[in-house]
Design a protein that fits this description.
The chain is α+β, with helices and mostly antiparallel strands. Helices cover 26% and strands 44% of the residues. The protein has one domain: Hotdog Thioesterase (Thiol Ester Dehydrase, Chain A), CATH 3.10.129. The strands form two sheets. A five-stranded antiparallel beta sheet has the order 1-5-6-7-4. Strands 2-3 form a two-stranded antiparallel sheet. The protein is flat, with a radius of gyration of 18 Å.
Length: 142
């Protein structure tokens, strides 16, 4: 991984959809506004945009931490812009600060993400190991 410039920033802009509102499945719909778990997804996606231009051939990133402090609502149809800013790069660990703002200029959330940059072959091998364990588990419990 190449060094990322201090305060490097990327943005992700999304339009809130009905699918992105709070619905807990078994518990049903709760609030007709942008859900915290969707904000977490968008924080991770914006954080990934921080590392992509600096990955070297054969490298991949994997998320390890997301912090979301959800401070306000956004309605379906509203645009939310998530701004990710590099806060630290410690070897292969990349930390980014997050801020979510609606098209009205209201901050509706902030937080952070952490990603690890590893050889993609190592990431893939870890997933294959898990798949093999899962296959053995489901076979033994059938």
């Amino acid at each position: 991984m190449r060094p990322i410039p201090a305060d490097f920033t990327q943005t992700l802009t999304v339009t809130v959809t009905d699918e992105m509102t709070v619905d807990f499945g078994e518990l049903g719909a709760v609030h007709p506004v942008y859900a915290t778990y969707w904000m977490a997804k968008h924080f991770e996606e914006a954080g990934r945009k921080i590392i992509l231009p600096f990955l070297e051939d054969g490298e991949g990133g994997i998320g390890s931490q997301v912090e979301v402090i959800h401070t306000g609502p956004a309605l379906p149809g509203m645009t939310v812009t998530v701004t990710a800013t590099l806060t630290a790069q410690e070897g292969r660990r990349v930390h980014a600060g997050m801020r979510a703002v609606t098209e009205l200029g209201d901050e509706i959330g902030h937080g952070s993400t952490t990603q690890f940059v590893l050889p993609q072959t190592r990431i893939d091998a870890n997933f294959e190991t898990l798949r093999a364990r899962w296959a053995a588990h489901t076979r033994d419990n059938s």
